Amino acid sequence: MTNSEKKQRLQEYIQLQKETDRLYDEIERLRSQAEKMTAVLSAEPKGGSGKDRMAVVDEIIDKKRQLEEKVREAYAARSAIVQAIDAVKSPLHRRVLAWRYLNGATWEQIAANERISYHHLVARVHSTALSMVNWPENEK
């Protein structure tokens, strides 16, 4: 597996986290929309039978199912990534991988936290760390 493929595999968790965040925001938007729909009592029929509200509720339920599935995927991806990172022998390289691929830290944040130069981190440490990652053959 090339370093590029390893990097892509390590980024799966961050991408799944972004998708779960997006779904959660969408659920909150739909919930807010549903709460704004109020029943109005009137002597004149106006045609609002509550179908709009039910459609929003159905959409919320569907989005919650999607969110639960993404959370399960993210948990499985994180477990595999943690296992791969934990197998890296060097503490510095292990920390860099964890900062980047589990915490989603920027290179600038990692360089500051580890007290190493940005250029050294990106040019040397990260590529060396990627070369130390080994995925089991039966996975992807």
Explained architecture:
- There is one protein chain.
- This protein is mainly α.
- The chain is 74% helix and 0% strand.
- It has helices at 3-10, 12-36, 51-86, 91-101, 107-114, 118-132.
- Helix 2 (12-36) runs antiparallel to helix 3 (51-86), helix 3 (51-86) runs antiparallel to helix 4 (91-101) and helix 4 (91-101) packs across helix 6 (118-132).
What are the main properties of this structure?
74% helix, 0% strand, elongated
How many helices? 6
The helix-strand sequence is HHHHHH
Helix content class: over 70%
Averaging pLDDT over every residue, what do you get? 86
Q: Biggest sheet, open or closed, and with what strands and sense?
A: none
Please sum up the structure shown.
The protein is 74% helix and 0% strand. By secondary structure, it is mainly α. The mean pLDDT is 86.
List the helices and strands and how they pair.
Layout: H1 3-10, H2 12-36, H3 51-86, H4 91-101, H5 107-114, H6 118-132
Helix pairs in contact: 2-3, 3-4, 4-6
